[in-house]
Design a protein that fits this description.
Elements (H helix, E strand, L loop, with lengths): L1 H13 L22 H18 L5 H16 L2 H15 L3 H9 L5 H20 L4 H19 L8 H4 L5 H18 L4 H23 L4 H20 L1
Helix pairs in contact: 2-3, 2-7, 3-6, 4-5, 4-6, 4-11, 6-11, 7-9, 7-10, 7-11, 9-10, 10-11
Length: 239
């Protein structure tokens, strides 16, 4: 029952699926549910894959558009919002304080719009040429990357959800990262080394940028990291 509560808590946090209808109690510590983040990726990736299969008769490009759209609806554009805020903050502020202030602003600027357009186009093109199962691998590693950032990077501000998860328990972190690796080996055994490597490099790059720009991570940075890793993994599997 404990594992079910933690999995449900992760789904409620990272998606807009009506898991709240189960009326399950929340975990005692939010960090205990980190192990389930890659499993949320499996669910979101599976939704995208089903949408791709359902629309495949229309052609690969329309099917890819519908697959990405289905994933965006499943997550409530949570990670897209983080990407836009991160791009606006990193690109539009001259000081750490100003960057964080911009990232709190609900309005989307030119950097955010450009980031969303470019990343979404790259996702659609990659999905249209990659095996449909790549959607699951990419979504799984994207959520594992969020756990990796949380476990290795201090919070840039003292409030917010990411700050509350900054001191992540080691057990759930190891379970999340190990589980993501195992799932990748099962889903894409022939490309697993390249896929895991590019996911790790993309995560490291986002961590470097976050520390350099704002001194740590925020929820927006986590969302941006998830999407950047997804695009990187999809591109490798498309190639």
């Amino acid at each position: 029952m404990k594992f079910l509560r933690e999995f449900a808590a992760s789904l409620m946090l990272l998606t807009r699926l009506p898991v709240w209808r189960l009326h399950l109690a929340q975990p005692d510590r939010p960090g205990d549910a980190l192990w389930a983040y890659p499993l949320v990726g499996v669910v979101v990736g599976g939704i995208g894959m089903l949408a791709f299969w359902a629309a495949h008769s229309l052609g690969t490009l329309p099917a890819a558009i519908l697959a990405v759209t289905a994933q965006i609806f499943a997550t409530g554009a949570l990670h897209e919002d983080g990407l836009a805020d991160t791009a606006d903050g990193f690109g539009g502020g001259h000081t750490r304080e100003r960057k964080l202030e911009i990232m709190r602003d609900s309005r989307v600027g030119s950097y955010g719009v450009l980031a969303l357009v470019l990343v979404t186009l790259m996702r659609v093109v990659a999905v249209s040429t990659a095996p449909s199962v790549a959607l699951i691998a990419a979504a799984t590693l994207g959520r594992a990357a969020m756990v990796g950032i949380l476990a290795t990077t201090q919070a840039a501000r003292n409030d917010g959800l990411a700050a509350g998860l900054a001191d992540a328990p080691l057990g759930p972190v190891i379970a999340a990262l190990g589980g993501a690796v195992v799932l990748t080996l099962v889903i894409a055994p022939h490309a697993a080394f390249g896929v895991i490597s590019v996911a790790a490099l993309s995560t490291g790059l986002m961590r470097f940028l976050a520390i350099r720009q704002i001194g740590g991570q925020t929820g927006d940075v986590l969302g941006a990291t998830c999407l950047i890793v997804e695009v990187a993994v999809l591109t490798v599997l498309a190639a």
